[in-house]
Amino acid sequence: MRVLFLNTDIGYGGAEKIMVFLANSLLQYNMDITFLTYRNKECVLQKLDPGVKHEHLDISDKGGSIVSIINSVRKIHQYIKNNNFDLAIAFLSPSQIRLVPACWFTKTKVLLSQRADPYNKGASFISHVIANVINTIFSAADLFVFQTVKAKQFYSKKVQRASAVIPNPIKPLVRTCERNTQSTEKSIVCVARLELKQKRQDVLIEAFNKLSKEYPEYVLKLYGDGEDEKAIRGLIGRNEKIKLCGVATDVAEAIQNAAMFVLSSDYEGIPNALLEAMSIGLPCISTDCSPGGAAMLIDNHKNGIIVDVHDADKLYKAMKYYVENPSEAEKYAKEAVNVNTKFSPQKITEMWVSYINNKME
Q1: Cα dihedral sign for 50, 103, 59, 114?
Q2: Confidence (pTM)
C-alpha cells in the first residue's frame, strides 16, 4: 500500500509528532510511506525514519488567499496523480482543505484525523463561517480518525460510520530519581503553551492564589512559552510564589518531584502534557476539557481528579485535597502510570493498522 502524509512542514507541534510517529510506524507493516510538505522546507523538527521518503513541493502558499489555496491544490493534485497513492492522510485543517479536492478524480482515498475541538468555533461570525467551511470539507473525506468519542459525535452519522476513535500513543517520560516523601517538593506544575484562550493559565493562577493564602509554602511553576507571556506576567504581578520557567529542556527532570501536575485548559485533543505527567507517576488534576480527551485519561478520584472547565474554585479545592491528603495523592499517582500500558505505541499503531486495512479492503 502506498501512503502519503501531507502537512505544511514537520514542526514540533503535537499533531506533527503523531504524524511522524505514524509514518515511521507504518513502515513495519510493509507500507510505502511518503511525507509531503509544501510550505516550510527547512522546518524539519521531528525525525523521520530513513525509510520514509520526505519530499517538498515548492508552492508559493502563504495560507491566506483563495488563489494561493487553489494553486496549491492544483500542484498537490498533480503530485498525487503522478505517484498513484492508495491513501492520503492529513491531520491539520490547512492541509485537509487542500488534500480533499486534490484527491478528486484520482483513485486515492483520503483519511483525515480531527486533532482540534470541533465544538469550538470561536466567538465571531467570520470564525463560525470558516469553521463550518472546514467541517464541510472535512466531512467529504473517505475515512476519519478521532481522538475522542465526543469529537466523533459532532459529525454526521455517515462520517461516524466510516470512522474510528484512536487516542495518541504515549512516549513515557523517564524519571531520574525515585519519587518518595523526602524528594517531593512543595510545588505545583503546569506544562502548556502560554495561551490564555485555550490553556487558561488565568484560571490556574486564580485557583493557586486561593490555595496560597492557606498554604503559603507552595509555589506554582508554569513551564512553556507563547504569545500571552506578557499578559500572564501581568496576572502574576509581584507574586513571587508564581514562576514562569520557560520551556523545559528535560520535562521529566523539571516536574518529577512536584506535589502535583495541573492542566487548566478549556479544550484539548488528548493532552500530551497530562499523559506525560501521568506516565511518571505525578498526582494529576485536569479540567474536563472539550471534547473529552482528559476524561479518557483520568478516572476521577482513582488515578487523578477531573474538575469543570473555567471553575477556579473547584480547581482550588482539588489542589487543596492533594495538599491535605498526600497519601491519597500518591495513591492516585501510582494508578496513573498505567497509561504507559493502555496507550503504548505498539497498541496504538495496531489500532491504526487494523482500521486502515479494514477500510482499504
Answers
A1: negative
A2: 0.82
